[in-house]
Design brief:
homodimer; about 200 residues; mainly alpha; Arc Repressor Mutant, subunit A; Tetracycline Repressor, domain 2; 2 domains; DNA-binding
Chain lengths: ~200, ~200
DNA sequence: AAAATATATTGACCGCGGTCATTTTCGTGA
DNA sequence: TCACGAAAATGACCGCGGTCAATATATTTT
């Protein structure tokens, strides 16, 4: 049988996350080095891996926390009343993910995780996000702002697909001409969510 | 001024690609090791990097070639006459990409590349694929099998988005219960491409 | 309190992708 | 054919993520 973790372990874990978070603020997610984290935290390399499995595991915790925070602010206030407002509510997430390729890659790797990693923050944040979108879409369907021939769940999933698509293209592009995510997303999501006119 | 590459260089490049291709057949894309390739090819490590930039560069060549071959067979024969037939035509690509995460990641990284890497095989294969899909979609629009309120180009781009979505989920999933790509794709693409009924 | 067991941490070590100053080979004009 | 500059190839070296047998620190048992 497995016993609950001891106090010492929780402290170590907290310190690692704390140090890593601060270092990310300085060098970005892609600039994070495991050696730097452990040395500043005053632990051995192996300790970090025993806590998070691998570097991605640590990043998943950090990024999961950030997404949760973003959702916290996105969730407050009234639900979007139009398609345009809905898209506005997506922008904070988009902006965050667009910040660094590493975020995008990691989200793509974890988003959709079912099974033993369900307890990971990042996985929970993923479900929370989809649930929120589903709710928004359902409400907009009820007021005839969106197509109603598809379930809110499916439409929300599709939103995810297009969001990822726009982000992926932005990372490939020549990095000049900074993508106008709002406009890009809008045109895809309108085609996907709005009732067909013609 | 830069002179054309010498014969020796072309031979070395060909040998590297040849060896790498054979090794991939044995150990898969994710199992490929640079050291193994160069040792079997009888060249030094640096040579490989001078040819392909990095490991991904080599993989891009190998994968690009495979996609081109797939497109060759996909392109022959009559264009799909229904949405179902269109989806059938996508399956070879899906199956190939689903084979290994590395393929998916690399495609996502290169697909959408514009600029100096335009001459890469993989980039060309990407454009060729989108062009083909656009053509198919246009034809199906003309026969009233698909929605006509969006340009063929946009619909084709959306197909890419959903295809990636389905693949991404399949890689995340618990790896048991092998995804039925055909069914998954079909439900998304029907919602995206078909005229709305309700 | 000492022995026995479970948990947590350690750090030398490894694999593998990638670099670059140096050396070898090739093409070309004197 | 020899010399000289450019192209090609070399391999010792590095950075960094990740491993694991050994060690240290808790917790329980007698």
């Amino acid at each position: 049988m497995s016993r609950p973790p001891q106090k010492r372990r929780l402290e170590t874990r907290a310190r690692l996350i704390d140090v890593a978070t601060r270092q990310v603020d300085q060098v970005g997610y892609s600039g994070l080095r495991v050696e730097d984290v452990v040395s500043e935290a005053g632990v051995a390399k192996g300790t970090l891996f025993s806590h998070f499995g691998d570097k991605d595991g640590l990043l998943a915790v950090l990024i999961g926390a950030r997404i949760m925070a973003t959702l916290d602010s996105t969730e407050t206030g009234a639900a979007p009343a139009t398609l345009d407002e809905l898209i506005d509510r997506l922008m904070p997430i988009v902006t965050f993910v667009a910040e660094d390729r590493v975020i995008f890659d990691l989200l793509l790797r974890y988003s959709g995780t079912t099974g033993p990693e369900m307890d990971e923050v990042i996985t929970q944040s993923f479900f929370r996000q989809i649930a929120l979108w589903t709710q928004w879409v359902g409400a907009l369907q009820a007021t005839n702002h969106l197509r109603s021939d598809q379930s809110p769940d499916r439409l929300a999933e599709g939103m995810q697909a297009f969001l990822n698509h726009v982000l992926a293209l932005s990372f490939c592009a020549g990095h000049e001409a900074p993508t106008d995510f709002r406009a890009e997303l809008s045109s895809y999501l309108t085609a996907w969510l709005a009732p067909q006119t013609a």
